[in-house]
């Protein structure tokens, strides 16, 4: 099934259609009450960056993988998070656990591979070995090493939960951290993600891009439907409406609908009667650093993971998810084409602009920055970040 129906009830789809028809007809978009002013140091301040890692990413859940990237028992992935590199391992009972990728002996990196399948992880430095459950299995030449209580020397574990087809992690091994994805998302947003049926998709490709850009610069770029015409003139601009978005805040998070220009073929019809499934993109923005975009025939998942220890550095994780595994050459060619388009838009256009922005905001004399009323999702993000850091443990 290449094109799946938009998995919402008719009332919701009618609401989407009516909002987009009105915006396109009238040259409007959803707007915030006023222009928002921010200090450009939010993109450069090392003290703020340290606070974000300690007070935010050390407590709140973020997506680390799609479940289909760990299909079988003992499959593993190494994932760089803001505070730790973590090894995710599929367990014998079908669940996933996550461990800090550091040998408990002398601190060597335990797992050098990005992915694979292993029952035992052996440290290349001195040969200490750990099971896929994180337990210390053996110590090389143990009689000469000394007495060790192995029960106290397991790999340090981070909280992990699978929900909506993703593996979520809290990036801290502190014993008081608890993970509850449904609570974090809130009932309305959790239901919206559930309707997307992301657990029925498979990960066709996942890649990481390390860039010298603050993670919030990148999050801003993908919350923004205002730059399509100017930044993406050579790729997707001819196919999408610019600066015409329907924004729905949902607690901490939010959902945004934008239109392809193919919507012109149906927008003279009644909103309650029309099928708009193949004419819109529905984007879910998950605070603090993630977006999931539903295209008519696939999903795009983007994470903007702050690099450890620096203010200006991000690992951008990109995934393309499909309804069915690609097994034929025709299917592979289709998704390769989609991936190449995504690369052209994100890597060759967005990243180029945002590398320049990061350089520019380091200038001394630039004054405040401004988000217009039409940049409503960006305003939501920055206002949420300010509330979250001002009110730790409630997170906005």
From TrEMBL:
GO terms for molecular function: 2 iron, 2 sulfur cluster binding; dioxygenase activity; iron ion binding; monooxygenase activity; oxidoreductase activity, acting on paired donors, with incorporation or reduction of molecular oxygen. SUPFAM superfamilies: Bet v1-like, ISP domain. Its cofactor is Fe cation. Keywords: 2Fe-2S, Dioxygenase, Iron, Iron-sulfur, Metal-binding, NAD, Oxidoreductase. It comes from the Bacteria. Residues 62-169 form the Rieske domain. Pfam families: Rieske, Ring_hydroxyl_A. This is Ring hydroxylating dioxygenase, large subunit of terminal oxygenase. It comes from Rhodococcus wratislaviensis (Tsukamurella wratislaviensis).
